[in-house]
Design brief:
mainly alpha
Length: about 180
């Protein structure tokens, strides 16, 4: 049985798009792991699920899109995993009894600043679409870090997000002078 050229092209295109979607879902799976850990440690399982679902959809979409979006998703997940783990490790195991407001603000803000700095340095090496990379990677890293900071409530989330914003802003504004 022969297929018409249009039908063949449609089937090939569908298989190609389905493969890209499956790749996005597969590589977005770490977001689900971070969500499960956050829901187990925090008393805010509903918030963890909501933020985790948003993170999963964002990462899946960026990887499915490809190009700079995929690069940003991978970089954001790597840096975001650190931003997720640092506050939990520091407070859950190390400062278990010393969890006051100032310490939470310092650690979460420093974590956000460090995550934003790493993403900014990575974006500075790109030749094109730096701002798009920085925006997407920062969104992914901030959502990952937010899952870790939910343990400390809205103040932890806000301080971590502010740290990422403050440290990525100079990289987004700065443009290399033409040679």
């Amino acid at each position: 049985m022969t297929t018409a050229p249009d039908d063949f092209v449609r089937r090939v295109r569908r298989a190609y798009e389905w493969g890209r979607f499956k790749r996005g879902v597969l590589h977005g799976a770490p977001a689900l792991l971070l969500t499960a850990i956050s829901a187990a440690l925090c008393q805010r399982a509903g918030w963890s699920a909501t933020i985790g679902a948003t993170l999963f959809v964002l990462v899946t979409g960026l990887i499915r899109y490809g190009r700079i979006g995929a690069r940003a998703a991978y970089a954001g997940l790597k840096v975001g995993a650190l931003a997720f783990a640092i506050p939990i490790v520091i407070f859950h195991w190390y400062f278990r009894d010393l969890c006051d407001l100032q310490t939470v603000l310092m650690v979460d803000t420093a974590t956000g600043l460090g995550a934003g700095l790493l993403l900014g340095l990575k974006s500075a090496r790109l030749e094109a679409r730096r701002t798009a990379f920085l925006l997407c990677a920062s969104a992914v890293a901030t959502l990952c870090g937010t899952l870790g900071c939910l343990f400390f409530g809205p103040i932890g989330v806000a301080s971590m997000a502010a740290g990422v914003l403050l440290s990525t802003a100079p990289f987004a504004v700065y443009r290399r002078a033409p040679a």
